Amino acid sequence: MTSSAVQDVLKGAISDKIFPGCAAAVVPFASSQEDVLVLEGLRTEEALSPVAKQTVYDLASLTKIMCTGVLVAQAKVDGLLSFDDCPFPSWPGIQIQHLLAHNSGLPDWKPFYERVPPEKTGIREGKTLLVEEVLTTPPEAKIEEQTCYSDLGFIALGHHLETCYQAPLEKVYHDWLRENIPQCQAHFVPLAEQGFHPQLNDVAPTAKCEWRGRRMHGQVHDDNCFVMGGVSGHAGLFGRLQDVVAFGRWLFETLQTSSPLALVLKDMCQAPYERALAFDRPTEGGSTGESLSPNAIGHLGFTGTSLWLDLGDNTHPAALYVLLTNRIYYEDTLAEFKKIRRRFHQEATTYLTHSFREKIL
Q1: What is the pLDDT of residue 266?
Q2: What is the C-alpha to C-alpha distance for residues 174 and 182, in angstroms, rounded to an integer?
Q3: How does pLDDT run across 269-305, given as a tens digit for each residue?
């Protein structure tokens, strides 16, 4: 990577055991150059294997934008839904756009996995039971009264997409991906079919789980998604650095066009809420600090992943920032990890903005 300051930040985090290893990319769209950084570190529990370009990460809530968000946009283009639809009878008045914007009034999270019998875990019956539990959970606030980041809304959206397309979410997603971003190989790992990730030696392990009695390696970290069979609208995607970069490039290029899908995505990015629809926006004290322009959109993943696309303005270059870690491998590092994530974006944007201003002058 061109900026040694970025390398120093991430190498320091590995030395301090904030995360075992990482892969990062900074992609300025005004240049043909793509700065990709892969740092050696722990990849598997058995050995100090180096992180490599083929290392696969549990992307966690990046699923919300890389899968659910774009599929909702596609379903709107296909005439299968509208943002003002209220498809869930137990949630009267809650529209799809409220679920996307996290202002539906639904709670943030609940341990639904505890309510599914062990013999139904990881199979279609378990998923059906968990979705029923979600859809019968009452809101805890009035619609648009507050913004509360909620997994429940995206579990519901994933279920609704299956209803719209009359197919499992993983099939809908993988078919869409092959047609729109064939160079992106982000994927779900359906537990009923595979059990564990087929390229297990390439997968970065995550946290130890008391409930499952083992470290999670090659299976989704999120317990609710695990019970659902590894596939959900809120979590479940696995991918390599180049897969997340390919998605970010596609999103940037698509937003430069006037295609029907681009127009829907633009509406989602410009929604008049605290958060955009599916996407997050930079906030003071947030994961990007004050580094990005007001035109940036992105998302975080609980496992230690993030993707931010800055569409740029007069002082900020259009660029993509991707950081993939398995920070939950170590316990109690979240506070320090948040600082590292902010410093990563600050150092990367400082370097790119300096180059951007030089080119303008």
Answers
A1: 98
A2: 9
A3: 999 999 999 999 998 888 998 899 999 999 999 999 9
Instruction: Name residues of the chain where pLDDT drops below 70.
Output: 1-3, 31-48, 354-361
Q: Which tokens sit at 269?
A: 């990015």
Mark whether 299 and 338 lie in a shared domain: yes
Residue 209 lies in a domain: no
Tokens 């590894």 found at: 230
Residues 6+ apart with CB under 8 A from 297: 269, 276, 279, 280, 281, 308, 309, 311
Report the distance separating Cα 243 and Cα 54, nearest Å. Answer: 10
How many angstroms separate the CA atoms of 155 and 238, rounded? 17
* Residues paired with residue 28 on neighbouring β-strands, in sequence order: 319
Question: Within this chain, do residues 155 and 72 fall inside the same structural domain, yes or no?
Answer: yes
**Across the strands, what pairs with 299?**
307
SS (H, E, C) the chain: CCCHHHHHHHHHHHHCCCCCCEEEEEEECCCCCCEEEEECCCCCCCCCCCCCCCCEEECHHHHHHHHHHHHHHHHHHCCCCCCCCCCCCCCCCCCHHHHHHCCCCCCCCCCHHHHCCHHHCCCHHHHHHHHHHHHCCCCCCCCCCCCCCCHHHHHHHHHHHHHHHCCCHHHHHHHHHHHHCCCCCCECCCHHHHCCCCCHHHECCCCEECCCCEECCCCCCCHHHHHCCCCCCCCCCEECHHHHHHHHHHHHHHHCCCCHHHHHHHHHHCCCCCCCCCCECCCCCCCCCCCCCCCEEEEEECCCEEEEEECCCCCCCCEEEEEEECHHHCCCCHHHHHHHHHHHHHHHHHHHHHHHHHHHC
Domain with 140 in it: 63-190
**pTM for the predicted model, two decimal places:** 0.95
- CATH for 22: 3.40.710.10
Number of domains in the chain: 2
